[in-house]
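seq/struct pair 1
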Amino acid sequence: MIDKTVHDLDALIAQIPNGATIMLGGFGLCGIPEHCIAALARSGVKDLVCISNNAGVDDFGIGILLKNRQVRKMISSYVGENKEFERQLLSGELEVELIPQGTLAERIRAGGAGIPAFFTPAGVGTEVAEGKEVREFDGKLYLMERWLRADYALVKAWKGDTMGNLIYRGTARNFNPMMAAAGKITIAEVEELVPAGELDPNEIHTPGIYVQHIYHGKHYEKRIERRTVRPRNA
């Protein structure tokens, strides 16, 4: 059986060239590929086009890459937790394409499914529609959106096997499965790595056919953007 296990993540990430388009899984800080992002920061790669639901926070996730000035363009849905992102956007230092969240998800899914375009009502009559084709179907206007694909997809799963089959846990699944399918080269990091054949096929979310490399990560921080607690009783 093919063993896709990677032992030196830094050496693998160092192969990503300047100017590459990269998808990064996660929602907020949930399910982000922590170790891959850290390796990207260490590699010094620049001019990246990053496709991600959000931009992390100032000192964690994609926020580290923004702080290092390694990102040329962000294609995202929500970026409200990152002050450095806001600064770079307002100063014109960073290109940004903001996309309705459902449209972003579908564009990525379409990229993995080999569907070059689709029509959606989201964004019709707004700035999102500028320069895009609009058609009428059954009396309603729809906007044509193109697929999204990437040179590399960096994803995070709970458990995987050496053949690259992946299982996600809870809401940490989010954008990871669709991005795994939409990347030309997909690098997955997992909390648990087992030998091929040990995963129940009925529980696999991403088949190994979509994954080229798998890395067994350890000591995940799993930060929370905003920790909210009830006040203590007097």
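seq/struct pair 2
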Amino acid sequence: MSLMVVGADNLGSIKNNIESLGFDDIKHISGRKKSVFRSFKLPVNVDMVLVLTDYIHHSAMKKVKQEAKEKNINAIFSRRSWSSIYKKMERRQLLN
């Protein structure tokens, strides 16, 4: 499965934790530069989007949400802590 992470400058150990859940293709963009989101389009081969709300500006969050909705891609909005990310994924029943 593929996952696009939007937000945070550095994923740290979160990337390893996400990989352990079965995501083999992880793409990451920072979310701080407004210029990146002016013409933002989600890649075609993304199964899910994870938005780290601590480190992203509001207009970028709206753009990602709109793109995910249009393409019918599951989007999760979470803080940048592994426990928060895991709980959100668990609530959506995305984990085994």
